[in-house]
Design a protein that fits this description.
Length: 51
């Protein structure tokens, strides 16, 4: 099975629970990586996909 990771822009993320919910919406697996790009405006989340 192959995997790949993509970064997605997202709304502001305040904790891992919110990040997990966003990753699920992309039908991927949250791997624990996200960062704030602009406080209160935008975050980026990393999602892993398997195929």
């Amino acid at each position: 099975m192959s995997t790949y990771k993509l970064d997605f822009r997202a709304r502001p993320i305040w904790n891992n629970k919110e990040a997990l919910a966003i990753a699920v919406s992309y039908v991927g697996e949250f791997i624990g990586q996200w960062k704030t790009i602009k406080n209160g405006v935008m975050s980026v989340i990393q999602v892993r996909f398997k195929y």
